[in-house]
Amino acid sequence: MVERRKDNKGRLLRDGESQRSDGRYRFRYTAWDGKRKDVYSWRLDIHDKIPPGKKDTEPLRELEKKIQADEFDRIVTDGGKLTVFDLAKKYIDTRVGVRHTTMLNYGTVLNFLKKDPFGKKRIDTVRKSDAKLWLIKLQKEQEKSYSQIHNIRGVLRPAFRLALDDDLIRKNPFDFELVNVIINDSVQRDALSREDERKFLKFVKEDKHFSRYYEGIYILFKTGMRISEFCGLTISDIDFKDHSINVDHQLQKKAKYGYYVEETKTESGRRVLPMSAEVEACFRKIISVRRPPDVEPMIDGKTGFLYFDKDGSVVYSLHWDHYFKHIVQKYNKIYKVQMPKVTPHICRHTYCTNMAKSGMNPKTLQYLMGHSDISVTLNTYTHIGFEDAKKELRGLKIV
Q1: Catalytic positions, please?
Q2: Residue 245 in 3-state DSSP?
């Protein structure tokens, strides 16, 4: 009869178990893929103490249980030894045909994970509580904004889903609602009141310097276009016969890349907008006074853009952000009653809110806004208050 091996405490060792001369335990096994592998621990079971000066690890037999479970379910041991950074990069490598802006965001997330200690963690060691605590730390200690953390989680959740599909892990540690973990500190973009909108437009129209931007700002308030969509418009997109605006692309500019044209933010963003007589008059004025450089710029096959800066470059979203900022600053220096923050996006939000309050069918408004999800449009109705509700009920002859 073969005598069973024992450890230095006289305990019987199981098949695959052994104890080295330095006291460390080893378990050797053949994985389901045919590869021989070893795991080590200074403890055989949970009752053993860690030798002084040695690194704490799970007991060998606890590791064996996990290995046996992984083998049964054909889960790759140790998460394929991928780190969080490795997994994020692997996921991003599978993303083909995405927008340039999306790839830039991916690069920002990868650069962050490469430096952050969390990016060096092995994926199979990350628990849901670890993921939550890390995101909380990003907000509280590293002062990352909600949107920044949202972008990071936006890469890691599908990346871990990929690892789950590849049998590298058992659970997705990032499968939770972000708003239940960290505080959404995003600045809410409130729509302007009709009175503030009127005051703002009047101020721009009558100001000697800023009046040159009046027509563009009026169009933004009265069409709800995204600023990148408006900047991307060319003369050929304005149909004066059909009284419509063709919106099927947007103009972007990124550092170290320059100008480029891409499709609208979503498929629903491709739309044809009807022009009111006032909006049409603004477009006619813009076209009549536009001063392009001697050689009109062509960006990804598009030419005939509406606005140019003093250097002859096509005006893009950042230009308009600055225009709005300076207009508000000048207004607030003149008047005691301050104008709230106004941006191109607030023009869009104001338009959506005004149309909602006017009783427009939500599906029609969804089309005009280019929203892919009706819930985004319906969220506009959160700005409706008591007076709006009372007016609506009176219209229904209930009160």
Answers
A1: 226, 265, 345, 348, 371, 381
A2: strand
